[in-house]
Amino acid sequence: MTALAHAALDQLTELLGSRCLTDAESAARYGVDWTKVWAPAPCAVVLPETAEEVQQIVEIANEHGLPLVPSGGRTGLSAAAVAADGELVVAFDRMNKILDFNEYDRAVTVQPGVVTQQLQEFAEQQGLFYPVDFASTGSSQIGGNINTNAGGIKVIRYGMTRDWISGLKVVTGRGDLLDLNKGLIKNATGYDLRHLFIGSEGTLGFVVEATVRLTRAPRDLTALVLGAPGFREVMKVLHAFQKDIDLTAFEFFSDKAMGHVLQHGVAAPFDTECPFYCLLEFEQLSEQVGERAMEIFEHCVEQGWVLDGVMSQSLGQLRQLWQLRERISESIAPHTPYKNDISVTISKVPDFVEDVDKVVQDAYPDFEIVWFGHIGDGNMHLNILKPADLAKEEFFQRCGEVSKWVFEIVARYNGSISAEHGVGMTKKPYLGYSRSEEDIDAMKAIKAVFDPNNIMNPGKLFDV
């Protein structure tokens, strides 16, 4: 540790006392996310409790040239929250309060360390609903959700995190506290700086407070799981249902994904084995809606787009059907999956999947490919499973070659190399496949305005 870092830690200890942690256990706990590729090596961890403390931390960091890395629930998959090079980790676990709620505005103001599930449960207690939902809601934090513009399983109906943030307070890399948009629905007063910080991965500043919109809770949710003979038929099913029914979710997964889930004790939805499956959900607000859903299902069967299917008849059955989709990641985890989170416009999905599948299978026929994702918004998760007899280091090296080929296809389809997991360090070398040099130069210029000394999560998203 440098003399400057020691001096900074002396000031931080004076400011925060026992909330400035320098032990190895804390470094290992707070310095990583779910990527597990880089070893944690922060110089220390601090746990502020107020926005003013965050400002003081940033001022000390600027004085000593100490880089800062934000840490939320540490559930990220892009290494955006990894401190691998002596940075100071700013963990928001202690800033976990719900500060205010207004029933007329349907808005709740929270600190960044509030866990996503905590916000969902609070909304439910008010008779309302926070719709951004994904596998890590029990541990991810709102600040992290905002920094990555988290999506999940309800995007087809409710959009991304960005669509639910009506106000932000942020501490910039200069140490300024900005109060952005102030919870307003309509505000035509120039640049909406709030949206620069959403999805910025902590590279411009740190979220210290957020005003989040809520909505009415969905009623009488019903799910259908359908088996299809091919991916193009899955897309035809999506189109058929969307013409008449407002879907709250439309997920897909391959037969290989289904196989792994069934091995983990989830019951098969029906006996017919199919190459692809889709799970769609909607509000059955009347008998007519349910009857129309069955008519569309029967039409899909007649057209040969669906081989078999089942519809939930109770809340318990709804939850059971969702297990088929929600437990995929858990079931493939023992196989050391190499994950890619990619997206294209919905109309291009079938051709895109075919192109990617062919490239990977041709190059590595011994690799098992597991597809699943939020097909209703064009977001697919490509998972390549490690053969049991292949060393992890060699597997990831070979998958790195795969990523380049996949991202070349992404670029050809004008897609995104990261639909919802962010860029961080894992996708940073490939950012040029989705963003032009002019785009990246503009982002660097914006960063220089808010973070002139490059102390805010340096080395993430891009290098300056």
Describe the overall structure.
- This protein is of the alpha+beta class and 464 residues long.
- The protein has 4 domains: 3-93, Uridine Diphospho-n-acetylenolpyruvylglucosamine Reductase, domain 2; 98-216, Uridine Diphospho-n-acetylenolpyruvylglucosamine Reductase, domain 3 (2-Layer Sandwich); 221-329, Alpha-Beta Plaits; 336-422 and 431-437, Alpha-Beta Plaits, CATH 3.30.70.2740.
- The chain has 15 helices and 18 strands.
- The chain has helices at 3-16, 24-30, 51-64, 116-125, 142-148, 155-158, 194-197, 231-242, 255-263, 287-302, 315-326, 328-332, 349-363, 392-412, 437-450; strands at 20-21, 44-46, 68-71, 88-91, 98-102, 107-110, 128-129, 165-172, 177-180, 205-213, 215-216, 221-228, 247-254, 276-283, 308-311, 338-343, 368-374, 379-385.
- The strands form 4 sheets. It has a 7-stranded antiparallel sheet, sandwiched between helices. A 5-stranded antiparallel sheet has the order 5-6-10-8-9.
- A hairpin with a 4-residue loop joins strand 5 and strand 6.
- Helix 8 runs antiparallel to helix 10 (287-302) and helix 13 runs antiparallel to helix 14.
- The chain is globular.
- The model has no long low-confidence stretch (mean pLDDT 94).
Oligomer: single chain
The percent range for strand residues is: 15-25%
Major beta-sheet overview? 7 strands, antiparallel
Strand tally is: 18
Number of domains: 4
Helix content: 25-40%
Low-confidence stretches: none
- Total of DSSP H or I helical runs spanning 4+ residues: 15
Rg to the nearest angstrom? 23 Å
CATH fold-level label of the largest domain: Uridine Diphospho-n-acetylenolpyruvylglucosamine Reductase, domain 3
Average pLDDT confidence is: 94
State the shape: globular
How would you classify the helix and strand content by structural class? alpha+beta
